[in-house]
Amino acid sequence: MLPSVAVALLLSGCYSREDMNAGGEATRPETEETTAPAPNDSKPAPTTAEAPEQGSAAGPLAQASIFLEVSGSMEGFMPKASGAENTRFQQHAAQFLSDLNRSTAVQRKSYFRIKEKPYADSYQQLSQTVRSGIQQPASSTDIPSVLDTLVSRYYAPNSVSVLISDFIYSPKNAGAIPYISTDVTDALNRAGRSDLAVSVYGYTSDFRGAFYPALKTAVKKINPCCDTDIPYYFWVVGPADAVRRFDALLLERQPAQQAHFGVKYPTPASSLLNRFQNVGSWYYGEKDASKRTAGASYHTVAVSKVSAQEPVEFVVGLDLKTLPALYRDVNYLKPNLQLQAQDTDAKIVSVFAATDQTKNSSGAENLYTHFVKVRVTRLGKAARPLQLTLNDQRPGWIGQWTTKNDSNINQAGAKTFALSSLLDGVAAVTTGEQEQAPVFRIPLTLQPAD
C-alpha cells in the first residue's frame, strides 16, 4: 500500500497481512516491478475512462467496467487449482463474467484486477484468474482509494463500474474504526457526482485458505479456514439510471441479498380491482369507468355506504416486476408499505403476492404481481387523497451480516467486519442531508358516492 494513502485514509483493506507470506516469513511489499508481470501488468489501467457513446435509456449501456480484487484475503474464494471442486464464488463469478461478455445489453466491456490500483486485463485473463486462483496476490487493497478511482476516473454517462470484493477493512488501530463510514463517504463524494448510485449485492461462498481478521487481536490468521461460508459482494457504481438498468439486465437472475442507494425507479403500474376480494359497497369514481377497457387503471374509490359494522375493503393491484427482488419480497413490503390518509381510518390489512390462480384468472388481477387490501370503516364528507408509499428502508440482512469482531469467524458465521459502517458511508453520499426518498408513491382518492 502506498504510505500516503495509508496516512490520508487511516484504513488499509481489504486485507493486510503485514507483508508476510503464506509461511509467515517477511516479504517485500509487492509491486509490479518485483513480480513476474502478466501480459498486461506492465500497463496500468488508464487514468481516465474513454468517453462512452451516448446511448438512449431504452438502448444498450455504453460501457461496463469490472474490477476484481486480488488481494490475499480473496485467495480463499479463488484457491489455486488443486483438483478440488471449485468454490461457489468461482462458479458464480465465472458465470457472471461470461454472461456479461456475451451480453448485447452493454456495448463495451472492460476488465481489471485491483491490486494497489487497477490493472487492465482481458476477459480471458480475468476469467482465468477466477477459475485457477490468484497467482500473485496483492499485500493489501485500499477500498476507499478504489472507490475514489471508480467515481473520479471511470464514471461516465450510461456506464457502470462493478467492484467484486469481500470488502473487509483492516484499521491500523482501533481508533480508526469510527472513521470507516467517513472515509467511504469522502472517497465517493470527492468527485462530486450528483446522480451517483450504488447497488450492493451480497453472496456467500465456501472458503479454502487463510482468513485474516480485519480487527487486530491476538488472532493474526486463521488457517485453514473456514468452517462457515464467507460473504463477498458485487457493488455496482455509476449514474442512477445506468445502475438501475444494469441491475435489471445482469444481476437479477441469481438470488442475492440486496441494498440500493440513490437508485430511482419508475412508478409501477397499478389499479383498483373492483371484482377481486372486495367487501362492501363501492365503485370506481372515475367518470369514464363505465367505458372500461382491458388494461385500464383506476385510482378513485367511491364509497356508497360504510360503518364499523359494514366496512368497505378494496384491493389495489401493483405490477412490481420492474423493481429489484428486494422490493418485490412480501417480507419487505409488509413493514415498509404505508398508507397515508386524511379524514378516514383507511388502513392496510394485507399485502400478498400473485398466485397461480390470479395469474391464470380472466379478471384484471392477472395483470399484477402484488396486491394491497385496504379496509375503511369511517369516511369524510368530501373527497380526500390517499397515498400508498413504499419506504426505502435499510434491509435487515445488513445488520445480520455485520460484526465488530471477525477474529472468531468460524463461530460467528457469515459476517463482514464493519459492513453497516461501510454502507452508512454510501448512504451519506446518495441521500445527503435529505430524507431517504421512497421507492414509489401511488396516489389514490377516497370519496363519498355521488
What's the N-to-C terminus distance?
Answer: 73 Å
Oligomeric composition of the shown chains: single chain
The coarse overall form would be elongated
Low-confidence spans: pLDDT under 50, at least 5 residues?
A: 1-13, 15-44, 46-56
Number of strands: 22
**Strand percentage, roughly?**
25-35%
Q: What order do the strands of the largest sheet run in, or round the barrel if closed?
A: 4-3-2-5-10-7-11
Helix content: 10-25%
Number of helices: 12
Structural class: alpha+beta
Radius of gyration, CA atoms, in whole angstroms: 26 Å
Largest sheet, strands/sense/barrel: 7 strands, mixed
Which short descriptors sum up this protein?
12 helices, five-stranded mixed beta sheet, alpha+beta
